[in-house]
From TrEMBL:
It comes from Acrocarpospora corrugata. InterPro entries: RutC-like_sf, YjgF/YER057c/UK114. It comes from the Bacteria. Residues 1-30 are annotated as: Disordered. One of its GO terms (cellular component) is cytosol. Pfam families: Ribonuc_L-PSP. This is 2-aminomuconate deaminase. GO terms for molecular function: deaminase activity.
Length: 174
């Protein structure tokens, strides 16, 4: 078996993979801290070598999440018989938040445990619809939030991606 390598191809010597974890879950020990990475069944597979969520230090770090479904279709996209595409920021925002909810549930947390979110919007003209839908889930006691305009996301039909951090409930923290 070859040595684990970093993204740059350099050997990774300070961490080790703990065996015995299911294929969708891996644990690594780096120094004195324990972290756990998960790919959540029933969710769209990550488009790269990264987990849906990483648990470390009592927090859950959710990778950038879109409205992509497990079958690779995208919520909030309609294409008519002539090929005209209609994209709906409200449907996509709702799907993203619900995907994050499901990912958090896989590590024993939920939307009320979120402490910070960063939202990436392809078009700031969608901010109003995004904000209205976001308010269906969170109020002023919800997570801190930053919204950033980006040039594009990994698929031309994606309007939004959200990255999130949750504080794990006390009984779940390791």
């Amino acid at each position: 078996m070859s040595e684990p390598q970093s993204v740059t191809g350099a050997p990774v010597s300070e961490s080790r993979i703990v065996t015995g974890a299911p294929a969708s879950e891996s644990q690594s020990v780096t120094g004195a801290s324990l972290s756990e990475s998960r790919i959540v069944a029933g969710k769209a597979a990550p488009r790269g070598r990264f987990p849906h969520v990483k648990v470390a230090g009592g927090f859950a770090f959710v990778s950038g999440t879109s409205s992509r479904r497990a079958d690779n279709t995208i919520a909030g996209v309609q294409v008519d018989a002539l090929g005209t595409t209609a994209l709906d920021i409200r449907v996509q925002t709702r799907a993203v938040i619900e995907n994050i909810r499901d990912i958090l549930a896989a590590v024993g947390a939920g939307l009320p445990d979120l402490v910070q979110v960063t939202t990436y919007l392809v078009n700031m003209n969608d901010f109003g619809g995004y904000n209205e839908t976001y308010a269906e889930y969170f109020d002023e006691d919800g997570p801190t939030r930053t919204t950033v305009a980006v040039h594009q996301l990994p698929h031309p039909h994606l309007l939004i991606e959200i990255q999130a951090v949750a504080l794990l409930p006390e009984g779940v923290r390791k």
